[in-house]
Design goal:
The protein has 16 helices and six strands. With about 375 residues, the chain is mostly helical. The longest helix has about 30 residues. Helix 1 packs antiparallel against helix 14 and helix 8 packs across helix 12. The protein is globular. The N terminus and C terminus are likely disordered. About 55% of the residues lie in helices and about 5% in strands. The chain starts with 9 loop residues before the first strand and ends in a 33-residue tail after the last helix. The strands form two sheets. A four-stranded mixed β-sheet has the order 3-4-6-5, with helices on both faces. A two-stranded antiparallel ribbon has the order 1-2.
Length: about 375
C-alpha cells in the first residue's frame, strides 16, 4: 500500500486515494451538515427510535429483500461486492452494509434502515451503468450510510407519517406541509452530499457526470454530451422570467431529489473547489472531532451558503430577492426605470407635467421612444 503526497493512503491496484478517519462532515452540503450536527447533538434521539423499529416496516423490508432479491457477495454479483468493499475502504466505513440487487427496470438505488443500513440497487441501474459509473453510485450510497442519512431519514419519515395522522387538528395540515417541505429540502441537500461522497470514492468526475446523464437520458452515450448536458443546467437556472422561477419552485417542492442537470452542475462546481482539493490532499475533518462540532457554527455556514447562492444565482426570482434585500427604495427605482424605460417619467420632462424633453442619450436615437 502506498501513500499519496497528502498523506492519505491509496487503494492497492486501483491508485485511488483512501481517507482514513474521514468524517462525513468533509463532504456534506452545508445545509445537510447543519441539520445532521444538530440531530447528533440530541443524545439518544436515534436510540429511542431504534427501539421503536417494530413500529416501522424496516424488518418487513429486510425480509422482503432477503427473500425476493439477490444479496451481493463473493458468489453473487462479485464485481459489485468488490466495489462495495472498495467504497467502504476508501471512506473508512468500518462495517460493510449488506447490499441487494432487486429486479426492477427503473434505475434506482437507496440506502435504508435503522438498526443498520442496507443498500439496494435495481437491475435497471446495474444494466444502465458501466463499472466506473456504478462505482460512483455505490460510493453515493456508502456516503449516505456514513452520514447516518439512513437512520435520520427513516426517523423523520416516521415523524412525518405520524404528523399526517393528526392533520385533522385545526391548522394541522399547514403545519404538516411545512414539516414535509423542510424535510424534502433537507433530503435534496443530502443527495448532493452523497454525490460528493460518490466522487470521493470513484475519483473520476467524468464517470460521475456520465452516470447522472444516463439517469436523465438512458443508455445512449453516443447521442449525448456532458458539456451540453451541463449547459442545460445553466439554461435552467438563468432562463425565463419570474413566472418560470415560480414554476421551478412548484416543480421542485414534491421531489426528494434535485433535478439531474442541477446535481451534475453542483458536483462539477464542488470538484473545482478548494474544499475538494484539500480532501484529496489529505486534509479533512476527522470522525473523532465530530463530538466537538459546534451546532451554531454549522448553522452559520449553512446560512452563509444560502446567502452566497442568492448572491450568485442567475435566476430571476433570486435577482428580485437580491433587490428586495438591497432596499425597497432601490427596488422602487429599478421598477420605475423598467416601467418607464425609453420614455418619459411622471412629473419630469416629457411626463404628465412636462413639455416633451428626453430622458437620456438613447431617447432620441434611431428608434426613438416610440420604437421601444
Amino acid at each position: 500500500m502506498t501513500e499519496s503526497p497528502g498523506g492519505s493512503e491509496r487503494v492497492p491496484s486501483r491508485d485511488r486515494r483512501r481517507f482514513p478517519g474521514i468524517s462525513s462532515r468533509a463532504y456534506e452540503h452545508p445545509a445537510d451538515r447543519s441539520a445532521l450536527v444538530a440531530l447528533r447533538k440530541l443524545s439518544g434521539f436515534d436510540t429511542v427510535f431504534k427501539t421503536l423499529s417494530g413500529l416501522l416496516p424496516e424488518r418487513s423490508l429486510r425480509l422482503m429483500f432477503l427473500s425476493d432479491s439477490v444479496r451481493v457477495s463473493d458468489q453473487q454479483f462479485a464485481h459489485l461486492n468488490d466495489m462495495l468493499r472498495d467504497a467502504c475502504y476508501i471512506l473508512d466505513l468500518e462495517k460493510v452494509p449488506p447490499m441487494y440487487v432487486n429486479q426492477d427496470p427503473q434505475p434506482n438505488a437507496m440506502c435504508i434502515g435503522l438498526d443498520e443500513p442496507i443498500i439496494v440497487l435495481t437491475t435497471g441501474l446495474v444494466e444502465l451503468l458501466d463499472e466506473e459509473e456504478m462505482r460512483a453510485v455505490i460510493g453515493h450510497e456508502v456516503g449516505h450510510a456514513l452520514s447516518g442519512h439512513a437512520v435520520y431519514r427513516t426517523v423523520l419519515l416516521f415523524l412525518t407519517n405520524l404528523a399526517l395522522k393528526i392533520a385533522w387538528i385545526p391548522l394541522g395540515n399547514v403545519a404538516v406541509m411545512a414539516i414535509v417541505t423542510a424535510l424534502r429540502e433537507w433530503f435534496r441537500k443530502s443527495e448532493l452530499s452523497a454525490d460528493r461522497a460518490g466522487l470521493l470514492v470513484g475519483q473520476d468526475l467524468q464517470a460521475s457526470m456520465r452516470g447522472l446523464m444516463k439517469l436523465a437520458g438512458g443508455n445512449h452515450l453516443h447521442e449525448m454530451n456532458v458539456d451540453a448536458f451541463l449547459r442545460q443546467a445553466e439554461e435552467y437556472e438563468a432562463g425565463g422570467d419570474l413566472r418560470d422561477s415560480v414554476l421551478k419552485v412548484l416543480n421542485m417542492l414534491p421531489r426528494s431529489h434535485p433535478f439531474t442537470t442541477v446535481r451534475a452542475a453542483e458536483l462539477k462546481k464542488w470538484s473545482a473547489s478548494r474544499d475538494y482539493q484539500r480532501i484529496m490532499d489529505g486534509h479533512y475533518p476527522r470522525k473523532e472531532e465530530d463530538k466537538d462540532t459546534s451546532v451554531s457554527e454549522s448553522f452559520r455556514e449553512s446560512a452563509a451558503h444560502y446567502a452566497e447562492s442568492v448572491r450568485t444565482s442567475k435566476d430571476p426570482l433570486m435577482g428580485l430577492v437580491r433587490d428586495i434585500a438591497g432596499g425597497a427604495g432601490d427596488l422602487g427605482g429599478k421598477l420605475r426605470d423598467t416601467v418607464f424605460r425609453g420614455g418619459s417619467r411622471p412629473g419630469g420632462p416629457g411626463g404628465a407635467n412636462g413639455t416633451g424633453g428626453t430622458d437620456g442619450p438613447d431617447a432620441d436615437g434611431p428608434e426613438g421612444p416610440a420604437g421601444r
